[in-house]
Structure formats: C-alpha cells, structure tokens
C-alpha cells in the first residue's frame, strides 16, 4: 500500500480453501491459503465531479452501479462517512486476476484492496481488525452469512487455520506436495449454497450437523497431517471432505467429474474449493510432474484454467 499526493493503491489476493468450507460457517475449523497467483489492485485518483468506478464488468458512476457492485458502493459510503470525507471526486479503478464467482475470494479480495486504497488515499492508518470489519460489511451484502474466512485470507500473507468468532492461527504449509487448482468455467453460487445449507440445518438438523461436524473433524486431522508432512493422508482427507460436501449438495456434476478425473490420474486427493455449485476444485499431487499431468487432464476434461502451487515453497509469502 502506498500513498501519493493525488493517488493511492490498495492490494489483496485470491484464496484457496484447502479444507473446511461451509462447515466454517457453523464454527467448525477451516484451513485456507493466500493465492498470490491471483492479485487484485485498486487505484484511487482524484477527479472533479461524481465518483466513478472502472472495472472489467462496469465502468460508470458510483451512484448507478449494478446490483453486483452494491456491496462496494455501501463500503465506499460507510468509509467516507466514518472518515468525514465526501463520496464525490474519486476515480476508483479495480483490476483483478481472480476469476469472479469461482470460490477464490474475489469479492473479499476486491473489498480488502478497496478499503486499503481508500484509507491510503485519505492518508489514514487502518488496524487489521478495522479492515476485517469493513470487508464484512461488503461480504454480508455479497454472501449473506459470511464466516469471515475469505476476508482473513485475502488480506493475509500466510496460510491460516480459522474458526469463526474464536480462533485463527498462521500455519506453515510445508507439505511436500503440489496443489493444482482448476476452474470449472462455471460461476459458483456461494450465497445460494450457504443459504441452502442453512435450510438443510433447519429441516434435517441432526443429519446435516453430523456431516458438518465430520468436515470439522477431517479439518483437524488435516492440520495434523500438514504438521507431520503426511501428504498422502492429507490427500485422502481432501477427498473425504469432498464426499461430505456432496452430501450437503454443494457440489455439482462438473466439479465431481473434475474430482474423479484428478483421482483417476493419480492425484492423492481432490475436492471442490470455496462455495461450490461451480467455481473451482483442487487436487493434491506428490510431484511436479504428476501435478502437470493432472492439470493437463483436467483441461482435457472441461477445466478452463489451472494453476499449480508448490506447497513446500512460498507458503509464507
Ligand atoms: C462456503 C464458505 O465457507 C466459503 C466461501 O469461500 C462461506 C464462508 O466461509 O463464508
């Protein structure tokens, strides 16, 4: 983050949930990592007249943003009001390499970069907890009932173990393996999926709670597997958690097909990542060669983009 006289820049990055999505909304733990391959940058410059937003999906006045950007509009209004600044006179330019609506934390990362840019522009320091509170305003509009995980990881430089309202800790992800992330090319439906799981909790609370608790248990085991560098076990736990996510209906055919493809091609484990019903999946491989082969097979089987991340390296970037 830097401040120039008439310009300020805020940055953030995407995230990948290794294990624990959905269950984390119900106070179970999750493990997630920052995904530096997908950066976000917001640049704010001074202009005359009404504020404007420029992004790949909208260019125009802040006052007339489409519904998909209402979260950012509320955020800008709240911050300007809290800092006693006018909402006019801002040119806000958003650039992001995170594919939107793919469970990679796009909305939280854009909000994080925006909050940082606004505070830098108004030459004010911001405590991390204040940043998280602002991002939550935006995430509540975007997702309904966010756990706070996305806000934490997209603003953090380290992988984290996270429990809603109670606990978070940076954990080194020095496992000797490679993570492949693949985009199904389909928009995920985090908000709807989170709402549907909430309905299942109301209707079949015992059954759904049992699955949620099982995901929490698998996440705790994954934490130990990471600590002890048991990459094979970690892979098995990822696949078991995908089975749980299927049981609460947050997967879909395309995700299941990519998960099966990864497993057939010797991945140690695979699962959807993020909100599900589209978006992205991840797979774990022992070697870089296997990771490349799996990524290639995923592309042949419908993925539109893949990324490979060496877990033993850069995990504390
Ligand atoms: C599905 C979910 O667990 C992760 C979305 O990236 C929702 C949340 O944690 O707010």
TrEMBL record:
Domain (GHMP kinase N-terminal): residue spans on this chain: 76-150
What Pfam families does the record point to? GHMP_kinases_C, GHMP_kinases_N
Residue ranges occupied by any GHMP kinase C-terminal domain in the UniProt entry = 227-301
Q: In which pathway does it act?
A: Isoprenoid biosynthesis; isopentenyl diphosphate biosynthesis via mevalonate pathway; isopentenyl diphosphate from (R)-mevalonate: step 1/3
Please give the Gene3D superfamilies that the UniProt record associates with this protein.
3.30.230.10, GHMP kinase, C-terminal domain
Top-rank lineage group of the source organism: Bacteria
Q: Which UniProt keywords apply?
A: ATP-binding, Cytoplasm, Kinase, Lipid biosynthesis, Lipid metabolism, Magnesium, Nucleotide-binding, Transferase
SUPFAM superfamilies assigned to the protein according to its UniProt record, in alphabetical order: GHMP Kinase, C-terminal domain (SSF55060), Ribosomal protein S5 domain 2-like (SSF54211)
The UniProt entry, under InterPro entries, shows:
GHMP_kinase_C_dom (IPR013750), GHMP_kinase_C_sf (IPR036554), GHMP_kinase_N_dom (IPR006204), Mev_gal_kin (IPR006205), Ribosomal_Su5_D2-typ_SF (IPR020568), Ribsml_uS5_D2-typ_fold_subgr (IPR014721)
A GO MF annotation of the entry reads: kinase activity
Q: Please give the name of this protein.
A: Mevalonate kinase
**Source species:** Alkalibacterium indicireducens
This chain is encoded by the gene named: mvk
